[in-house]
Amino acid sequence: MQADKFRIVLLDTKYRNPNHYICIALGSAFERNPDVEFVRKADPLDALSVAHEHRCNLFVAFDGEELDAILCERLSTLCGRSVLWVTEDPYEIDVNVRHSKLFDLVFTNDSASVDNYGPKGRHLPLAGATEFHDHAVIPVDKPLRYELFFAGTAWPNRTAFVRSVLRDIPPNWRFKLALPTNEHLPPRDVDMPESMLSWRTSPVDFGRFVNHSAATVVLPRKFSASGTRDFAETPPPRLFEAALAGGAQLVHGSLAEVAHSFAPEQEILFFDTEREFIEKAAALVNDRPYRNRIAQAARERAFRDHTYDRRVATILDHSRLLTPAKPVEWRAGSEPAAAGASGSKTRKTLLFVCHNMVERGNFGGVEVYLDRMRTALREEFDVLFYVPGERGHHHEAHLLSHDYTVLKSVKFREGYSPVLMASAEREQAFYSILVDYQIDLVHFHHFIGHVPSLVYVAKGLGVPTAITAHDFLPLCNEFNLISFNGRFCGAPKVSLAQCDTCLLEKHSIPPGSQATRRNFWNGVLGATDVLVFNTAGTRDILSDVYPAVREHRGLKIVPVPIHDDVPRRTASGRPAGEIPTVRASQPTQADSTKSAGPATQVEQGRQGGRPILKVAILGNLTPEKGGDVLLHAFAGLADAPVEFHVFGRVNLGYEELTDTARYPNITLHGSYSADDIPEALSECEVSVHASIWPETYCLTLSEAWQQGIVPIVTDIGALGERVSHGVNGLKVRVQSEGDLIDAIRLLAEDRHLLAKLKANITSGLYETLTAHVEALNAVYSPLLRSLPAQSTQHEPPKRLPVLKDYGIVLQSNAWTHQTVGRTRIPRWRPAGPRGGRAVRVYQFYKERGPVQTFKLFVKHGKRILWRR
């Protein structure tokens, strides 16, 4: 990198800018300039990363009235020198002056507006773009297509002029007239068909129309929708563009400054009245050599003085006089944190976006993991949480401190729905949080309760992001990939037609919606800096579906950790996990917790001296965790020398397990803290993990291994991936009760096999907290480029950006092919497996509320209560 060369990031600050072609031409001109080593015309989403990666030393912002003040301030701070070129003065002078405080120099297209910017103001007219407008003058021996040509917005003064001259134009003249309008303008009242007036032309076609017309008309604009000065004497860009295109121009006399750019009567022609216009236009039409002399002289002058190469040279000459800032450390340690934010800025601020937390209850492995991380990462980060409202509160979100204290609450007009991809009010709220609390890094752990478009908001602010795939929500609305038939759908080896069938049957979501959802998610996954997977298998499933994952340069495999603690010892001093031999004369603590009852088959087995195999069921007992399969296994092993110990929450639909007469071999220990493993677990020798969906890691498997317990797992997802059959555990087919019963019987009877499997369990099979924190810091470290805090030297933005400001336009915020309000989630289906009816009623109540649930019972009550 040469010290005297410019490295430029160029940004068009206006969404859907009709003058974007000028920015393109500007970028090409920078590329051709010998003093420029690097230039990139960036998008709002990647401008900061481009500036950082390429160490840009000049930020050039094109157009100003709609710019994102925070983004531009960060780019100005990072690059050390900044230039704004505004093109809508004087019509947008107020907002442009307000934004000018962010920049070192301001170039304005309007000479009369320069003084408004003080010492940093410069006059710089627009120009012609050789990329779009370069056309040689058509020789006199070749006919032209039109006598007159005009294209421009239907400002009132222009429509008045058109009305006044139409009656005097010779009837044999062919003319091309474009007067497109907008919602701010009065009616045109031009006696011509709408189709002849309301059309727009591309920059290239504009040049062609000029080139093939005898006379091109240049009229001023006298109108402002912003309540500011409504007239600019500085010529518009089309004056220079038409000159490059080999056209002869008739310019209204009010644009007196045109004489500074082109010689009157030699390179352009002025007119003041309608009669003078008709006379001079007739001269150009009737005297072709005269017309060509005017056109050729203007074209030569434009090439000499009025191309964007010339304008770029001017910008660089003035920028070179600026004193470049020192290499930026965007946040000094002395800088105070935002009001209400925790800690000072001597440390980085890490924001976890998640769906729940342990304090709310009804939690799983993700919440346990994040609860550990908030403490484990405190030495390096101020950890904050961004969570949706509690269950049923779909219109709010909360920013929490590391100890779950509410720092900020946000209310939304539109409630959250899982079919939402984007939401302007949620994007703007997230934008404010990232800025006000000076977030350095966002790690998305779950999108339930959040719109995935939040990833784009962070990227647009230059805030690095990571996404951890704790489940398959990025792949499907059914994040555990359980199909409408209650089984794993087979992803990724499943067609979109099958996905459509499942979503239609399960949620009444119309066909085609899955393709829309995946298209959006592909962009989201590609926009994040790092994609974290717990296992390679999860990565492979998503990469098989998403090109963005296959092509991503930031894929990481980081397993979920458990505590570093070694397995505890029981009160008797026996190492946890050591195989006990339990006989009838040796009751255990777990036995004493069971209700008294008649002699059972298990007790008879003890009386015969057969050892009792204690089997742990770890985690919440749900259908997705194989609850229905386990019920069959419990019944099938009622007469075997086996005891089942259930550690975790038992969900609705499995209350029958409390019936000791039906399930004499089961002990329910209830929920437990992951930081305080029950002592009874250490007495278990085998654990069962019967999930019917491809889990992405499974913390309970790690907990079992850490206790020296031999696992039996279903051969699916991370369970099948992590366990080696016959080496450190056993694998059975998914939803195969017989396979599970056989595997448990085998270990109950073959103690040598059990000992062999146990001997192969080592600490290398699972991740621990210390190693995980090191791995996570290695992931975060390359992302933690410092970000500039918001300055207090300018007013806050009048309007915060939304998704479309980043160039991402959606037909609908919902991925379903119908409105969110009409999507029925869930649809009632009375039939189902054991326990499924009660679960569905409960889920229906949570989603639809008491009124709709009452209507459900009115309509389907008999089938709900009595159907077997």
UniProtKB/TrEMBL annotation:
Domain of life: Bacteria
Stated name of the protein: Glycosyltransferase involved in cell wall biosynthesis
Glycosyl transferase family domain: residues covered: 615-760
Region Disordered, residue ranges: 566-606
Annotated ranges, domain Spore protein YkvP/CgeB glycosyl transferase-like: 201-317
Biological source species: Paraburkholderia terricola
Taxon lineage: Bacteria, Pseudomonadati, Pseudomonadota, Betaproteobacteria, Burkholderiales
Domain Glycosyltransferase subfamily 4-like N-terminal: start-end pairs: 363-547
Matches recorded under InterPro entries: Glyco_trans_1, Glyco_trans_4-like_N, Glycosyltransferase_grp1, YkvP/CgeB_Glyco_trans-like
SUPFAM superfamilies to which the protein is assigned, alphabetical: UDP-Glycosyltransferase/glycogen phosphorylase
PANTHER family, per database record: SULFOQUINOVOSYL TRANSFERASE SQD2 (PTHR45947), TRANSFERASE (PTHR45947:SF13)
